[in-house]
Amino acid sequence: MKRVRARAPGRVNLIGEHTDYNDGFVLPVSIALQVLVDGVERDDRVLVLRSAKIEGERRFNLDALEPGPRGDWSDYVRGIAYDLQRADIQLRGAELDVSGDLPIGSGLSSSAAFEIGCAMSLLALASTGMDPLELARTAQRSDNAHTGARCGIMDQLACTSGRRANALLLDTRSLAIEHVPLPREAAIVACNTMVRHENAAGAYNERRAECERAAELLARRFRHAASLREATSAELEDARSALGDVLYGRARHVVSENARVLEYVAALTMGDLEVAGALMLASHASLRDDFDVSCAELDLMVELAMGCDGVYGARMTGGGFGGCAIALVARDHAEAFHRRIARDYHAATGVVPEIYPIESADGAEVRLL
Q1: What is the pLDDT of residues 181-216, one digit of tens each?
Q2: Is residue 23 flagged as an active site residue?
Q3: Which residues are CB-neighbours of 229 under 8 A, at least 6 positions away?
Q4: Considering only CA atoms, which of 104, 23, 10 is closest in space to residue 363?
Q5: How far is CA 130 from CA 120, 121, 135, 273, in A?
Q6: Is 76 exposed, middle or buried (0-12, 13-18, 19+ CB in 10 A)?
Q7: Could you tell me the sign of the dihedral formed by the alpha carbons of 287, 290, 295, 297, in that order?
Q8: Which residues contact 216 (CB under 8 A, 6 or more apart)?
Q9: What are the tens digits of pLDDT across the range 271-317?
């Protein structure tokens, strides 16, 4: 009986938030916090799914899968199984047991890691595979169709294509990837606010729709492709009254964030961590004020982080409305930062945060047991 284990990393996004579904630039890092999926083949066509973090199990007949979201955590696996079979991959019945140390709902891409890990286990049990880019694209399409999340491709590609000690500069229009070495003298620390706002998924889809509407209006006015990647700051100012305050703010965030990603990469390359930190702060302000996806707890975490010694910059990471902020910290201050940020956030909120010193990791992999 064939047994496999897939390892799928989470990610932090250093900069480039809500740009991936706008054909923009992102700079994620695959991290050592991970999802593990142990798969065992079955003799029938039933897919059994269990999670160490969620009670109960889910069962599906691979010959009777239906598309569309059901609002259940298993939608990610049901959806990817449906789409893999539509791609003429002959899946086998399997039992998938999911574990790992990647926290759910923290803004560290647990859903993409869960989906990719399950997909790789299913593929390995079927004695086949898929290249990292195609797997990421399949998982993104599955998310859009089966979970109701209109996400971009950043999380999935960071999961499949990351490289230890590097960030991944991704052009989401061309899907070109460049690995950017991380500075050895700085540490990345993720600070979990422990907040999950119930409206996050709906608000995420709303932001995407607003970006699409802004891009459409700009394309009509300036005759370029209907993507905010094509827009310039000058065009936004010229069209400000036509866009209105909300769409103008959404578009301004995307346009300015794309520029910040490239400036951040240049700063890392030059070893200028002060500039990199300032760009992180500017990104957070833009996400808070123009894109309206921060929350009081994330703003507080960033403020507290900047009051600590050795911190170059901080920002929210992920879709927003809760989850994690990240800080870029001088390595020799990282341990003291960990203690102080936990103490100060607890003192201010009464909530004990989880603090994760981030270790980079390679992309997802699967092996026979």
Answers
A1: 999 999 999 999 999 865 566 888 899 999 999 999
A2: no
A3: 22, 23, 24, 173, 258
A4: 10
A5: 8, 11, 6, 37
A6: buried
A7: positive
A8: 226
A9: 999 999 999 999 999 999 999 999 999 999 999 999 999 999 999 99
Cα(16)–Cα(70) distance, rounded to whole angstroms? Answer: 30
Q: Is 238 exposed, middle or buried (0-12, 13-18, 19+ CB in 10 A)?
A: middle
Position 200 scores a pLDDT of 63
How many whole angstroms separate alpha carbon 31 and alpha carbon 318?
Answer: 14
Reported pTM:
0.93
| CATH, range 3-182+363-368 | 3.30.230.10
Beta carbons of 107 and 317 less than 8 angstroms apart: yes
Please tell me which residue in 23, 75, 155, 290 is annotated as part of the active site. Answer: 155
CA distance linking residue 294 with residue 140, whole number of Å: 24
